[in-house]
Amino acid sequence: MADKNLRFLVVDDFSTMRRIVRNLLKELGFTNVDEAEDGQVALHKLKTQHFDFVVSDWNMPNMTGIELLKAVRADQQLKPLPFLMITAEAKRENIIEAAMAGASGYIVKPFTAATLEEKLNKIFQAINK
Amino acid sequence: MSEFGGMEELLQDFLMESNDLLSDVDNKLVELEKRPEDRALLNDIFRGFHTIKGGAGFLNVAPMVTLCHRTENLFDKLRNAELQLNPEVMDVILDATASVRDMFGTLGQGLMPRDADGALLAALDAVLSGRMPQAPVPQATPATPPVASAPQRSDEPDWNSLYQAVVPAARTTTPTAPAPAPVEVVPAAALVPETEPVTAVAAASRAAAPAKNVTASKSASGGGHENTIRIDTNRLDMVLNLSGEIGLTKNRLTTLRTEILQGNNDSNTLRSLDEAISQLDLLVGDLQNAVMKTRMQPIGRLFQKYPRLARDLARQLGKDVELVLSGEETELDKTMIEDLNDPLVHLVRNAVDHGVESTAERIAAGKKPQSLIQLTAEQVGDHILIEITDDGRGMNADALRRKAVEKGLIDTEAANALDEKQCLQLIFLPGFSTKDQISSVSGRGVGMDVVRTNIQKLNGRIDINSIPGEGTRISISLPLTLAILPVLVVRACNQPFAVPLAMVREIITIDPEAIQEVSGNPTIVVRDEILPLKTLAGLLGWAPTQKPGFGVLMQSAERSFILAIDSFVGRDDVVIKPLQNIRPKGVAGATLSGDGSVVLVLDMEDLLTAKDGVSGMVKTSELITI
């Protein structure tokens, strides 16, 4: 079981969606959550504060989720950070793109707390292997 | 009644945010008509629908997911240049936007919206499949099918193998090339549960589409009042800080009270008391301000709906109109913003319908073919000034005068006595319509007087300026908030009364010599303007206790007059409390003065009409003295 004190960063330009994800995480027992409204803000937060997990939307202004993911993977410090990509896109090329950019997982909207938990656990398992 | 048990709060958030988003999309669509190739715009609109879809998905609003999904796909094709934007496609997009807005309206009532109009979904499908004028570029097709096909969905273990499979390949190949291979590793897994709703919805609505033919009402859902408000957390912190400090000051006062009650009232204690009270005074003032600020919202939230409104109407009328906004960041009390919507919608419609000319007329008059309507807001002192200016044909004073007489709203004599500015005010009379034919969009003659009444309810004023051939400007002046009313406290018959400061133009001393009788009514000439003199005692129906010494020059939209009073107390910011059960004519409510006595706040319009009832002629004679 994952440490409930893990610090999450939820990245989405739509505040309702951030709230939804935050609520779902809370349902799973993760209460240490911060938010960012786009990739740029997220990257700044990631570089200045400590986070254990990023849950990011794909489609955002200024800096998209995939750009954020690439920036995270290109950064020596942030590189190992687990990164779950959320999106409404379930297109094949998107999944491929996310995978190639180094996403740790991919979840399609809308999803339930159970699905989120399942995805998170897979990622935790992969890390602990 | 709600079908969203347990999710109402989330729903409210979603609606508020999505409404803003959709208004933004609406405006971008208007922009897009001018710059159909603009990638950034197309991207933004795409993201708008995408985001709404995402939120709707979590709320299980299937009809909205379906509709947004298709519209989003359409924009995906547009931004990838697989489709060309043309008027037909634009119409479909606008219909889709209107339909989404209707669904917001339904959701706002806590109900699940019905599926979008079958014809609309069919039209979207037609555009997507290239049956509309422009054929899509062939390779686009595989990209579009919604989330339906199974192979691309993977269960978690497959994600890892997929990841493993793809990452090494990425070094040597282009992103698209390795796609088929790794994905084929995956398909063993069944559909991931979370995608089912979407797929099912798409299928269900496709089946249902031909059967249903409910035409969505085009009316915007802006009517109802929102019960939630978004507040900058800094502002909320300010309120919290201030209430904390007030608590501390209260503690200090309590201590001081104990000391004083124990007989300790030396100069030190009294000075401390004085300090504490001064501080409390300051803090309460700040707190009032801070609380008021939490209710302040940028007027842009209202304005942003209008470019689309103007565009649609102009298109319907065959006119070319651009509505330009400025000052959207100007802040106004939330309730006022909501109550301003109807008057502003009316004024924007009026400007497009009556104000500006058709393209042909404009060219004939040597004007630029496209007409310009400006909607501006700015804070001027403690007031907000909203102006709507068009560069249209302007208003003809003579025509207005004739019309008012024809309609029997005023008699010829009164009409001839009106100057040009006063003629413009005629459009505010109930039953006045400047157009001969009643059009479907505006001009039922119920308009402008209702607009003015609404503005007055907000303690505001409305004014018109117009130059024939050059255009019309309508100015609305509003107080920042309704919660706190600045008043002038005056005395008459040994009693204090408060009159709204917004109506006070100036204060004069009354020289009994200067009072002249005009047809039996006392008047005073102030800078060449003949103004009727009304004593407050007289208006109240009381016997005067002394000769009035001062006059307050009051101005409302309809009339100016001098209110004769005995003396002044001063200006004050008061909170009006309505009187329970009784409603004396001319009294808006009551407030407490500094010494704890009750002060009646007068409603001047009400007080004057009470008197107008006595003689029928007063009204027209007062109209002349505007």
From TrEMBL, chain A:
Q: Which residues are modified to 4-aspartylphosphate? A: 57
Instruction: Report the InterPro entries cross-referenced here.
Output: CheY-like_superfamily, Sig_transdc_resp-reg_receiver, ST_Response_Regulator
Superkingdom in the source lineage: Bacteria
Any one of the GO BP annotations? phosphorelay signal transduction system
Q: Where are the transmembrane segments?
A: none
**Record keywords:** Phosphoprotein
Q: Which SMART domains match?
A: REC (SM00448)
Signal peptide residues are none
Q: Per its UniProt record, what Pfam families does this chain match?
A: Response_reg
Q: Provide the Response regulatory domain boundaries.
A: 7-124
Q: What is this protein called?
A: Response regulator receiver protein
Please report the organism this UniProt entry assigns to the protein: Pseudogulbenkiania ferrooxidans 2002
UniProtKB/TrEMBL annotation, chain B:
Q: Where is the composition biased (Low complexity)?
A: 133-152
> A GO BP term, please?
chemotaxis
Residues in CheW-like domain copies: 484-613
State its Enzyme Commission number(s).
2.7.13.3
Q: Entry's InterPro entries?
A: Bact_Chemotaxis_CheA, CheA-like_dim, CheA-like_homodim_sf, CheW-like_dom_sf, CheW-lke_dom, HATPase_C_sf, HATPase_dom, His_kinase_dom
Residue span(s) of domain HPt: 3-107
Residues carrying Phosphohistidine: 50
Pinpoint the Histidine kinase domain residues. 241-482
Question: What Gene3D superfamilies does the database record attribute to this sequence?
Answer: Histidine kinase CheA-like, homodimeric domain, Histidine kinase-like ATPase, C-terminal domain, HPT domain, SH3 Domains
Where does the record place the region Disordered?
133-157
Query: Which reactions is this enzyme annotated as catalysing?
Result: ATP + protein L-histidine = ADP + protein N-phospho-L-histidine
By its UniProt entry, which SMART domains does this protein fall under? Answer: CheW, H-kinase_dim, HATPase_c, HPT
Q: Name one GO cellular component term.
A: cytoplasm
Q: Name one GO molecular function term.
A: phosphorelay sensor kinase activity
UniProt keyword annotation of Protease present: no
Name the top EC class: transferase
Sorted UniProt keywords: Kinase, Phosphoprotein, Transferase, Two-component regulatory system
Q: What does this protein do?
A: Involved in the transmission of sensory signals from the chemoreceptors to the flagellar motors. CheA is autophosphorylated; it can transfer its phosphate group to either CheB or CheY.
What's the protein here called?
A: Chemotaxis protein CheA
**Organism (species):** Pseudogulbenkiania ferrooxidans 2002
